[in-house]
Amino acid sequence: MAKGLKIAVIGGGSSYTPEIVEGFIKHYEELPIRELWLVDIEQGKRKLDIVGELAKRMVVKSGLPIDVRLTLDRREAIDGADFVSTQMRVGLLEARKWDERIPNLHGIIGQETTGPGGMMKALRTIPVLLDICKDIEELAPNAWLLNFTNPAGMVTEAIARHSKVKSIGLCNAPIGLHKWLTKKYEVEAKRIYTEFVGLNHLHWVTRIEIEGEDKLTELLDKREEYSGKNVPATEWDPEFLRTLGGFPSYYLKYFYMQDAMLEDQLASLKANGTRAEVVKRVEDELFELYKDPDLQEKPKQLEQRGGAYYSEAAVNLMVSLRNDRRDIQTLNVANGRVLDFLPEDAAIEVNCVVTGQGPLPLPVTKVPEQAKGLIAAVKTYERLTIEAAITGNRGIALQAMAAHPLVPSVRVAKILLDEMLEKNKPYLPRFFK
Amino acid sequence: MAKGLKIAVIGGGSSYTPEIVEGFIKHYEELPIRELWLVDIEQGKRKLDIVGELAKRMVVKSGLPIDVRLTLDRREAIDGADFVSTQMRVGLLEARKWDERIPNLHGIIGQETTGPGGMMKALRTIPVLLDICKDIEELAPNAWLLNFTNPAGMVTEAIARHSKVKSIGLCNAPIGLHKWLTKKYEVEAKRIYTEFVGLNHLHWVTRIEIEGEDKLTELLDKREEYSGKNVPATEWDPEFLRTLGGFPSYYLKYFYMQDAMLEDQLASLKANGTRAEVVKRVEDELFELYKDPDLQEKPKQLEQRGGAYYSEAAVNLMVSLRNDRRDIQTLNVANGRVLDFLPEDAAIEVNCVVTGQGPLPLPVTKVPEQAKGLIAAVKTYERLTIEAAITGNRGIALQAMAAHPLVPSVRVAKILLDEMLEKNKPYLPRFFK
Amino acid sequence: MAKGLKIAVIGGGSSYTPEIVEGFIKHYEELPIRELWLVDIEQGKRKLDIVGELAKRMVVKSGLPIDVRLTLDRREAIDGADFVSTQMRVGLLEARKWDERIPNLHGIIGQETTGPGGMMKALRTIPVLLDICKDIEELAPNAWLLNFTNPAGMVTEAIARHSKVKSIGLCNAPIGLHKWLTKKYEVEAKRIYTEFVGLNHLHWVTRIEIEGEDKLTELLDKREEYSGKNVPATEWDPEFLRTLGGFPSYYLKYFYMQDAMLEDQLASLKANGTRAEVVKRVEDELFELYKDPDLQEKPKQLEQRGGAYYSEAAVNLMVSLRNDRRDIQTLNVANGRVLDFLPEDAAIEVNCVVTGQGPLPLPVTKVPEQAKGLIAAVKTYERLTIEAAITGNRGIALQAMAAHPLVPSVRVAKILLDEMLEKNKPYLPRFFK
Amino acid sequence: MAKGLKIAVIGGGSSYTPEIVEGFIKHYEELPIRELWLVDIEQGKRKLDIVGELAKRMVVKSGLPIDVRLTLDRREAIDGADFVSTQMRVGLLEARKWDERIPNLHGIIGQETTGPGGMMKALRTIPVLLDICKDIEELAPNAWLLNFTNPAGMVTEAIARHSKVKSIGLCNAPIGLHKWLTKKYEVEAKRIYTEFVGLNHLHWVTRIEIEGEDKLTELLDKREEYSGKNVPATEWDPEFLRTLGGFPSYYLKYFYMQDAMLEDQLASLKANGTRAEVVKRVEDELFELYKDPDLQEKPKQLEQRGGAYYSEAAVNLMVSLRNDRRDIQTLNVANGRVLDFLPEDAAIEVNCVVTGQGPLPLPVTKVPEQAKGLIAAVKTYERLTIEAAITGNRGIALQAMAAHPLVPSVRVAKILLDEMLEKNKPYLPRFFK
Ligand SMILES: [Mn+2]
Ligand SMILES: [Mn+2]
Ligand SMILES: [Mn+2]
Ligand SMILES: [Mn+2]
Fold first, then answer.
1. Residue B232 counted as domain residue
2. In this protein, which residues make up the domain named Glycosyl hydrolase family 4 C-terminal (chains A, B, C, D) (predicted)?
């Protein structure tokens, strides 16, 4: 321990990297990092160099003895690591563009994680992550893998079922909600108690208490909204919200407000192109900023990017794992016996006590009846998608697509699948053998 | 036993009655009926008289000592009965018309059992059935209640959870499939082995074997189709079918071929009105036939009506219950521990061994992964609907409607619900207190 | 099918063989056997020759075209078999003698299946059976293995968990109870309905109905007793029996009447030696009879031996499997979801519907609260014993012995284990590496 | 909150009271008590007065504004309470004497909680506790009931299943183990991580880690022993301990070392009488001390009494409940889905996160196979005992006694039960109607 930790960030050339570097600097005391390895692939070398140099400048400014290393050799970075974190995008924003655009062209929600396009993201990503896991099994068997790579729920489940790596899936939505509550009620974070039920990007918050007092009812009554920047605000039906039994994730609008969300997407597509294209422009601007040799800190503009608190979530988790802190965090882990209507090996997003030996999921005290059907339906889609990703079987992929609640028929499933597989050919060798 | 059985048929004025009377006559030896009570409500008296007189003529012709009684006094009919069978339609075909028409007007599948209109049918029917159950608890606590009243799955679950009556839900679809296989393969029924998984009007047949040999694969490969008369045939995607893992109930087309089915319905609505209106005309013709005082048997035309083998299913079940026959029948019963992703008290449609003490559900040996999500989603809708039926709570009803997989958004759910509740006002006193 | 079945009986030199041969002759029509292979080991050749020649004379007398083959080559017998049946005794009656005697010498129940001595039988037998299963996997992967080899519950569970062979465990106790009821109530077997709950040699009969009428209550009230010949009758406490909620297997006396049974055993040991020694004398006499070249049928004296109806149980099962008969038989199979307090892969003894694809366990409708603790305690002992058999780990064996409900302390467990392992050295190579 | 808490201690005349009063004084800041009510029954008035006056003197010395009230009116004490704590002994030490002595006289372990005598304690206590719960339901429905009354597991389960009171069962054994580890390893309590599996007085500690490092293995290897004062130390078999998979509660010696423990008890009985009689003498001496009007603090001698850390356990729990502290404590709560082999409503002793809304049980990460059988067997005994306590049914009581793992036969069960019921007649009106 004395010698400090080794951390490998896979996808280290991401525009998010300054955020996590800032987090590491801030929490150096509880998480004394000796080596921080930023890894990327050949194709991402340019971005890795830019953001990596910024990271080095940030560390220099901090005065901390953290050794920042940039590499294209994943195995070197993983070797002996204490924590491996992944934040990759197989196929880059170009692939995402089609995940969003193709469904839209057929009158279907285009969303890169929960929409049917998310299936392509899973098919591209899962095999790559499982390859990384093989390296971790071999080179850093005791490491914790923190997976931010979306679709984080499916990726986490694929890893849990198909590798021996100790892994945890992470999303910034739960911590984001906490931050929002903290500001709204002007209260310390630890005074707030929330209970999450569901899957990644498909959760309901079934308890919100401040100093033991229920706030959920008033939040639902007033139709208060916590929304990520990447999802437009739309009005909820008040009666529906009041009887739902949980504060819905903003991603649930894609299901509950399918028609309004689609309309909004189509208008936005016309005006600005896909979300991928918008993000691409933001990223390009960020990298322009990062190049500035005088910049020694995370630029304010990064906060526009959509991944707020991502760094805080990651650092919180590492600190608790390392220090056996036993605090409650909302994570993506194997269901175990928490939800009685899902298999034990299904990944869910749930409150966990983070011990030194890993997270222990807490029992849920309330599950909205309404939520069960949707959770089960999406989980069915997810499990079939994972199977398709591993086998490269088109029939299974079709079953998965047809099982997606936003896909109205097998006919449409077939069309979407065929077009999207074709577009993803370079990333899906298993489907084109 | 020596003195024979008492049977009460609630909704005895139904056009189906000659079918079941024929069944009773045919199986008199195994099911020696002393008294057959046909019960109906004031509103149905005319039909009861017509069909009741036909029933009497049929019995006279058979020469059997069965005493046929017509009554509007339900309690008299139930008192001391061995079997009570229900085949009712609260609100008659007029109410059904709106269950089908209102969704269609909003571009949604209109189907009286599995469509969102089925929710109204459940709301109208469940309280009436639970009232009947109170009479059975009091007057015939040992009777078996055979429930044919649709939506049979929800009605059966409501009874199982909210009364002490021993009840079983029945549908003619499973026996119909058997008959179809019998003819197709020219083989005795008992040589065929099938395994059903799912809910009423939402099942997959996961094993079809003839003398131990698998036939499911070829049936799926060839896209063979067994279809009830009330559902138009449409092409299945061959790849989808081949990888589905089960022979789908024809009701599943409403989910898997939502777009084609809707198109077909809208065309049909334009040409012939709703299915309710078509059925109404068929029924009127049947009753004209029934009036003929020379008619002493079930007229051939009844087979056009859509309830084929209904009588055979009912009589089969009564015979096995009475004689502890221990054969396998596909019935709607409480899940118990059969499907691990549903509550123990959820009604499912499953193979059962019918013993003298009631049906024992058999474990399922295969559950298509694809089916799980849809089963769970529909069951969530069903459970919320049952809760709404019992409480008269509009918020719960809205949750139910929004949970229906054929309803694309809360906005549409609200519209459908409001219009349909209004139209059903006379039958839904709990919602208009 | 036309060409008839091949059956391999492993342990074919057993004194029981004439019983099963008689069964095959009687049921030839439903079970047309072409080849009947009797297999034994070198050590059993003399007995195999004697009983094998008798089997041949029985078949000749029957006039049926069954080809009886005697062999010491197990693989030849298994190759392409439709059914494999095992009735072995690793270590012969000599080993059994010590299974009974050593516990008795320490004041503990000596019983070859349910007593702590049964653990040695399991340790000797499980590896041999798993070897046989490897041959079946290779040479007859579609064969059904019918396992009569005791301790049948543990052996069946070991096979189910550690091989791919389709196997079923069998005991004559359930069929024996049926026969007893048939005689007692002078009623056809199919009029009787019984429900069994528990494990092999540890079951409770929770429903006994004749033509739908409860007989369990009167049987318990009158302390009626069905007892195998190898267990002495002893008085049950009437209040205990009345409130127990099930008719106890006579093997349960070893637990419920531990003191009286032990006293009886010690007296009997003094007078006649162990049960093994008594059986040895009976067997020697049987083989003397079998030698008679004029004997062409099963001698009456075999019925004294203790395995009554064993043949009937085996033939019943084979007939139902071959003909998809779907009748109810009480068998040892994997628990699945039948008993919610045991693992899914635990072998239990339970009513099954025997289909052409194998037995399907029926749900239990009543489980005596009292029974649960004992079932769970014995199952824990069984699972640890299976683990010990496979690993040869003495620590696990000690855990198993200490978990046996008839062993009062770890100290005694250690003594029994050490003495018995030593005595079984030739049969337990895994423990003496 | 500002006005402070009201606490009712039922059985306030107990010799333990100074201990809990000391705790309240020490933790006043986190647990600001306004009123502390000590309640007892008429029979205990003398003791209540003595210990109550001491309590008052202790509070006066502390200078805190806590109002100590002594009363025989339970309802007055409960009315509006925030916490109710129970530490009663129905029948006093006199009844305990027979719980220990009668089994001993028949050669059976005499132990007031886990032995068969504990059944009498449960029969005497459960109805009284359920009466108290009725008062709490009426007068303090939001109160938390902290139950220390033994047998704490059964009492807690009875309350959870038969009342609506929010209750938690407590024992000082888990905290005692922690304290022992703290001293042994000279480390802060929060650096130690332990995981408990089992029931009250029947647990295994399956993980013991200090700063993330495993210590369980060495503790088992070295046969280190943490033992309560009331249980004599005896040697464990080293091989048994090493392969057991958990550090056993010292109460487990009654099962694992039944023979040695019985021998010890019989010797001790001869020398000093029962443990009850020894305790009686200790208590008499304590009350002599308490009478001293100059005594203003808990006397050192109380620590000899056996209930060490009892106060700390209680105060810890109250503090966490009141302040939503979310720390991990080992408590007796409903199983929920923690142990898959026990019913959801069975009380277990397990790690919980204590939130402001109550404890949430943590999943167990390891369950020794060996432990499962014994846990299930004891739980069966417990559930039957609870049913007997509520119904007063002798048949059920006999089933319970016969199910106790320390009772070797139904015959012995009957003898123990008859003698003990007779001796407890005054406290068991339900059994003598
Ligand atoms: Mn996310
Ligand atoms: Mn139907
Ligand atoms: Mn047997
Ligand atoms: Mn205790």
1. no
2. 196-407
Q: Which residues of A touch D360 (CB under 8 A)?
A: 362-363, 365
User: Quick check: D227 pLDDT over 90?
Assistant: no
DSSP assignment, residue A428?
A: -
Q: Do D326 and A324 touch (CB under 8 A)?
A: no
CA distance B193 to B215: 10
Mean pLDDT for all residues in chain B: 94
Q: Given CA atoms D295, D299, D305, D310 in this order, what sign does their dihedral have? A: positive
Single-letter residue type at C62:
S
- Tell me the chain B residues in contact with residue C333 when contact means C-beta distances shorter than 8 Å: none
Chain D CB contacts of C385 below 8 Å: none
Distance in angstroms (rounded) separating the CA atoms of residues B286 and C269: 83
Closest Cα in chain A, distance from residue B118 (Å): 18
Name the closest ligand to CA B310.
Answer: 2
The residues of chain A scoring below 50 in pLDDT are 1-2, 229-230
Question: CA-CA distance, B211 to C412, in Å (whole number)?
Answer: 55
| Percentage, residues of chain C above pLDDT 90 | 86
Q: What is the reported pLDDT for D308?
A: 73
What residues in chain D have their Cβ under 8 A from chain C's Cβ atoms?
Answer: 236-237, 239-240, 242-244, 256-260, 341-342, 369-370, 372-374, 376-381, 383-384, 387, 393-396, 398-399, 402-403, 405, 408-414
Give me ligand 3 centre to Cα D112, in Å. 40
Its domain, for residue B72, covers: 5-169
Residue B338: inside a domain, yes or no? no
Domain count for chain B: 1
In a domain, B30, yes or no: yes
At residue D81's C-alpha, the angle toward residues D78 and D85, to 5°, is: 70
Give the pLDDT of residue D229. Answer: 47
Buried residues in D33-58 as b, exposed as e (16+ CB within 10 A): bebbbbbbeeebeebbbbbbbbbbbb
Region of A8 on the Ramachandran plot (φ > 0 left; ψ -120 to 50 alpha; else beta): beta
- Give the number of beta-carbon pairs within 8 Å between B and C: 58
Prediction ipTM score? 0.95
Catalytic-labelled residue, pool B251, B290, B381, B427:
B251
The Cα A397–Cα A419 span in angstroms is 13
Residue tagged 């209750």 (tokens): D167
Cis, bond preceding D299 (omega within 30 deg of 0): no
Is B114 domain-assigned? yes
Residues of C catalogued as catalytic:
251
- Within 8 A by CB and 6+ apart from C1, the residues are none
Alpha carbon separation from C57 to B155, C36, C225, C286, C298 (Å, rounded): 64, 13, 38, 16, 11
Residues in Cβ contact with B294 at an 8 Å cutoff, skipping those fewer than 6 apart = none
Q: What's the start-to-end Cα distance of chain D, in Å?
A: 47
Tell me if A39 sits within 8 A of A115, measured CB to CB: no
* Peptide bond just before B174 cis, omega within 30 deg: no
CA C170 to ligand 3 center in whole angstroms: 7
Q: Which of C19, C78, C85, C17 is nearest to C49 (CA)?
A: C17
Please state the rounded mean pLDDT for residues C387-402.
98
Residues in C touching D242 (Cβ below 8 Å): 395
The pLDDT assigned to D233 comes to: 55
Chain C nearest C-alpha distance from B360 (Å): 7
Measured distance between the N- and C-terminal CA atoms of chain B, rounded to whole angstroms: 47
Q: Is D290 an active-site residue?
A: no
Question: Whose CA is closest to A361, among A342, A378, A339?
Answer: A339
CB within 8 Å of B21: residues ≥ 6 apart? B36, B54, B55, B58, B59, B68, B298
Can you read off the two tokens belonging to residue A356? Answer: 């030194």
Model confidence pLDDT, tens digit, residues B288-308: 999 999 999 988 888 766 667
What residues sit around ligand 4, an ion, with C-beta below 5 angstroms?
D 171
CATH code at position B124 = 3.40.50.720
Mean pLDDT of C370-376: 98
